[in-house]
Amino acid sequence: MNVLLQHYVKLSRRGERVRSLLRDRVNSPPIVPHSASDSYMLGSRARIHLNGWQQAAVAVGSAVGALLDPRRADLIAALGETTGKPAFERVLERMKRSPEGREVLLDRPRVISEKVGHAWDLPSNTFGAAYASFMGSRNFSPDDRPPVRFMETEELAYVAMRAREVHDFWHTLFGLPTNLIGETALKVIEFEQMLLPMCLLSVMGGTARFSEKQRSLFYQEYFPWAMRAGMKSTDLMCIYYEKHFDEDLEDVRKRWGIIPTPQPHAAKG
Question: What is the pLDDT of residues 68-118, one digit of tens each?
């Protein structure tokens, strides 16, 4: 873990972008979405308001539980929400300042089967078809994401949900597998993009479970690549991905500054 932190300090010295994110403040008026059904769709009835002590307790409990069982998506989601409010506020502000990001906030698209099912019918060279292939080959469903429970406002709840739901779009764009190395590398990119503490904790937890061979491969190939890829790509939370499904995969990668995962090395595990 010390090695990981040293790498972050060293490689994040290109930190003007990070410092500018840290200076952001949430002071814009809320954007009223087009759809009146968003509250129910985001699980607002299930959302829980916590005081400071309760939030800390949920964060600690979720962190411990997620380390013991990394397959618990609900615990990882709770950890992200209870530790990530400042990061989500910064993402929200950036989305409001971006024309495409504002459109996402107005429409509040959801990555669920009902909305993205047409991707399976698109030509094989398109981004949408690549996403469909990624999901279908793994028997994944876009409907399996846990609801947001610990965000205070509808806007922040949507941003948290959006970050969760575009995760598989990012897998597709960067060409990352869903094994331990692939997921850990994507968490590095997510940290560079959003500065979510949960992403850093997930990277620490992931590397702690690596074999020596995996650890060597990760630090030699995937970690420096992920840091570079996360910094060089455009602001990925401000993209209305669903409107680009029918575009060529390589074209959108170039436009968004995506650096695909290292080849021919394959992540093992």
Answer: 555 566 666 666 666 778 999 999 999 999 999 999 999 999 999 999 999
**Domains contained in the chain, number:** 1
Q: Is residue 200 part of a domain?
A: yes
Q: Tell whether 247 is covered by a domain.
A: yes
Render pLDDT for 119-165 as a digit per residue (tens, 0 to 9). 999 999 999 999 999 999 999 999 988 888 878 899 999 999 999 99
Task: Tell me whether residue 197 is in a domain.
Answer: yes
Q: Do the annotations mark residue 247 as ligand-binding?
A: no
Q: Please indicate if the annotation marks 183 as binding a ligand.
A: yes
HEC string of the chain? CHHHHHHHHHHCCCCHHHHHHHHCCCCCCCCCCCCCCHHHHCCHHHCCCCCHHHHHHHHHHHHHHHHHCCCCHHHHHHHHHHHCHHHHHHHHHHHHHCHHHHHHHHHCCCCCHHHHHHHHHCCCCEHHHHHHHHHHHCCCCHHHCCCCCCCCCHHHHHHHHHHHHCHHHHHHHHCCCCCHHHHHHHHHHHHHHHCCHHHHHHHHHHHHCCCHHHHHHHHHHHHHHHHHHHHHCCCHHHCCHHHHCCCEHHHHHHHCCCCCCCCCCCCCC
**Domain, as residue range, for 115:** 38-255
